Task: structure prediction
Amino acid sequence: MAGMNSRLQFMACTVLGVCSVLVGQAPPPSVPPQARPQQAWTEHYRRSTVLLGRVMTVEGRQQFGVLGTGVLITPDKNHVFLVTAKHVLDDPSQNWHPSALRVRFSVQEKASFAEELGVPLTLTDQQGRNLWAALGDGSDIAAIPLTTNFQTLVTDAVGYQDFAQPDDVYDGASVFVFGFPVDASSLIRQDGLVRAITRSGIIAWTDPNGSSENPLLLDSNILPGNSGGPAFKVPSGLNKYGTFVVGDRIAFLGVVTSDLRGYYTVTADGRVVQIRFPDLPLPSIAQVGVVGIGGLGRVEPAFKVRKLVDQMLNAMVSPTAPSSH
Result:
């Protein structure tokens, strides 16, 4: 009996040891600047998600109008960048070239769209040059540095230590996505989507030429308004090699840039036309004819987000360094 107890104690210590090793393998997540009461494990990442839009007039009243989502990235303790899908900031195919947008941060989420119109975000300087940058390879991502004027509004941001590594990106991996899909407003109230929605899914496809360096597809019911929102790998369950892992880390996979819906087919004034979401003025008399239900969404990888932010950091140090717009 004494020998059996010893063996059981040894087995328990072994199991605990394995668990502690697995937990110890994960690097620490990015830590918010100030301590907070206990909160959901996803909360820090949701609070790193922002809402991009513009001021609109609805029934004679000004309110914030949703255009897309963004994520705050902090490469070091001195800089914060807002990263989103490039087409949210500039889309030549839709003649969309705004000089400024509005941003709503998580600290403003208790105010309705009518109560809080967002903070102005200037996109061009006085000479009309872009203050944001994009990669020169056609990737649908863009970034803009946030000035100290935004300091009191930025409570959380995704750090480089949270970025996905090659082993985090594989077909079938569980994910969650934060964003502000416009269609969901009707489920709450017209100006009620003030807090990022969390949606789950899986990685549906990775590029055989490089899973972590190239765009990937998510099966996660992506909708208009999700563009620019962050996608994360869920830190539990089976890893890439089929081993059950305890205490793994959340991994930032990249930003959502598009879904399969693309264009709406609508009937307006008796004519059938195709329009892209931001082109439909609100309010507008239109009847939706064909609308998809979301599904697969394209994600520009964290690898490219880091490449873009690093380029912008280098340009700040060396102002003459070239950048792509």
Notes: The chain has one domain: 43-317.
